[in-house]
Amino acid sequence: MSQSLSDECTPLKRKYDACFNAWFEGYLEPAVSASVTPEQRKKFSQEKAAEFDRSCGKIWHEYRACVQKAVTDKGLDSLLNQARKADPLKEPPPPDSPRS
Amino acid sequence: MHYFSQFFNYDHPWSHVVIGMWHKYPNQHCTHVVTIDVVDRSVDPNTGIVRTERILGCKQKAPAWIVKLFGGSEDAFVREVSFIDPSTQTATITSVNLSLSQFATCYESIRYSPASQNKTTFHQTAEIQSRVNLWRAASDKLENFLVQRFEQNAQLGKLGFSDVLRQLWENHEQQQGQSA
Q1: What is this model's ipTM?
Q2: Which residues form the PRELI/MSF1 domain (chain B) (predicted)?
């Protein structure tokens, strides 16, 4: 597993990554086949989103606090905010048009 | 402005490639990617789309003329936003440089989609453009350097991720073989 921006955050990052990966590996294949109807997909997605929050929410908050501080300390916060403003990327980019 | 585009298939099913995405680094071919941090992540409770925003920290020596002209150091940071949509089996990853972004932008877009049961298509495009009205020659030289660097790294990415996927799923199959 790779390191964090800040050595101090690396143990939290690794715990969080491990938590996410465990959740994601159990999520992906059932999610692919859960697309029978939009209602079924919604129910499945709600359950899984809640499960992710239950499993990884606590470690995520700890890791995020650490990494936010590291981003600011490295002077990356203004660059990140500029990039977010230029392109929020809140929705997946449409097919066949890489540039939004 | 320069464009870069490539297509190829990985010999792994889509779900394996998308699980593997999170294990891509570190790998021996891409030692320039040193740090990875998630700065935002959400699972859409309606669509099931997983959105992840990360900052990648890279260390790769820049030629002396670049350091002289633009300053900076060997540390460069990239913002990456990915969307994984299980309902359409599409993963898209968009990246833009944070470092030296006042001079040039490298905007990369990757899409993974199933080619068949056991193959996944990788489609990568990039637009590389220097921003400043430097005198023309220097700005062309900068773009050409960035294009070369991008193409080298794109090749390393393919080699590295192929290794990671092979090892990941070989181990997995061995473990399954043992437990069966």
Answers
A1: 0.94
A2: 1-173
